Amino acid sequence: MPGLDVRWIHGAPDCALSTDPPLQVYAFDKDTYILRQSKCAHFEAPFLYLLFGTERAMLIDTGAGNAPVRAVVQGIIEQWQAIHDRPGLELVVAHSHGHADHVAGDDQFRGQPGTALVETGLSSIERFFGFRNWPEEAVGFDLGERELTLIPVPGHMDRQRDDHFAVYDAQTQLMLSGDVFYPGFLYVRDGRAYRRSIERLVCFAAGHHVRYYLGCHIEMTRMKGLAYRSGTTYQPLEHVLELRPRHLAELHAAALETMGGELTRMVLDHFILEPV
Fold it and tell me: What's the whole-model pTM score?
């Protein structure tokens, strides 16, 4: 199966001379958009996801630094509404989790008409999405003829404030896996919870077709097991964004190696398990 047909912006040797836009927009299909921030604007260069249904759109994450996220998202929405003749579409702004490089643009959306900003924190997402048995229970969220499944995947954040969830979209068969699974440093603060989260994703995939796992960063190079250093603003030989089910199986096997004990650092071909 071929991967995504896109060349991501990846920074520049001299960011003062960079011609990259602050946000690159890639249309996966007519109802699914992937945005990437410029590494010259913020070294984290997170990926954001915008999904359209017939009743509402959902933006997952608002990025890092001061990128003009709302202006770009609003432009996509207005174009989509004009093509589909659907004025008045509600925008739900949610987050894969509450780390700073995923929420920096929240103020751009807070209080805006037609916009529901789901604040970070477990109590907020439980209330908005209807989680009743976190983290064991997945919940559905309907965009209008497009059903999403939200799957709790704690372990990346501190236990006291871990609100991380993945999003499965049956329409595209994409799993948006946040910072729990992507081609880079998989930082783990709660090994027990993280191991259970990976098991939860594996169990879900056993009953659902997952085409790709799309996370929020790229930190690996194209060379197996080799990552760019944290803070890098130029990644000309970076790994592709998409990971596949076999890669999740590799991570699951690595986590199982330490079952009953603490997770240890493991360098694998496409990601690095990094307990902190």
Answer: 0.97
